[in-house]
Amino acid sequence: MSIQKEYEGKTVTDATIEACKDLGISREDLEFEVVKEGSRGLLGIGGRNAVIKVLSDGLEQETTDQAITPAVSSSNTSESVDTKKVEEIFNQIVAHFVEDSTVEIEVSDKNILIKLKSDSNLGFLIGKKGEMIKNIEFLLGRIASKQNAESIFVSIDINSFREKKDAELVERVAALIEKVVSINRPLSLNPMNSYERRICYLEIEKNDEVTYTTKEVGMLKKITILPKVIDKNLS
After folding, report:
1. What is the sign of the dihedral through the CA atoms of 66, 21, 147 and 27?
2. Co-location of 124 and 84 in the same domain
3. Number of domains in the chain
């Protein structure tokens, strides 16, 4: 079945980056049409974002039995994914800004996770609203995809920033699940991208008293957690 989704960014390129990251595919595999061209406006006023529409067969299908394969060290993974070039280029980028740092590479299926740790202030690598890190991830993803001749998704975790955010998300979901069970009513999380939603699914599936549904909200999707059995006496 063909599914259409729209993605937004300051430019068409930014919109395609968002689409590729959400869908976990390379730019070469992305088929889209431009809905709106981005505009900077006059002196930064009245600008508008670019919007693209992605059309693909069998785009992301989310079901309750979805799960993530835990990441494992690249030294113990299949040799089918070559990470050497990506690690080399990332180290070159970091070396221009940071003197002392450590980089670890983990691979899960067709996903590469780069962990960067340093005592230096690395906020500039993340950028405003994470724009810088998204661009670097997209660039490295294209390089890895070309080198491996298949779609490879690259994520970067700076000083455990991603791990901390993931842990906070798990805590929020666990608290919401507890509340859903307590009041016997559905409650919703804020709209999220596919990476964040998968973290939520894993936590929800640990509790056999609840289930979930998803609903598209613009470029994202909102998860609603609901009791498997509605007790009308509590509703």
Report:
1. positive
2. yes
3. 3
- Of 159, 193, 208, which closes a domain? 159
* Reported confidence tier of residue 59, pLDDT bands at 50, 70, 90: very low
Is 64 among the domain residues? no
Structure tokens at 84: 């050497």
In a shared domain, residues 166 and 137: no
- Assigned domain for 7 exists: yes
d(CA 20, CA 141): 9
pLDDT given for residue 204 in this prediction: 94
For the beta sheet containing 210-217, the strands, ordered from the edge strand earlier in sequence to the opposite edge, are 187-188, 220-227, 210-217
CA 184, CA 196: separation in Å to the nearest integer? 25
Claim to verify: residue 33 and residue 110 sit in the same structural domain: no
Stated pTM of the model:
0.51
Domain assignment present for 62: no
Q: Which residues pair with 225 in a beta bridge?
A: 187, 212
Q: Specify the pLDDT at position 74.
A: 38
Strand-strand pairing, 111-117 and 153-158: parallel
Tokens of 183: 């009041």
Cα 101 from Cα 117, distance rounded (Å): 6
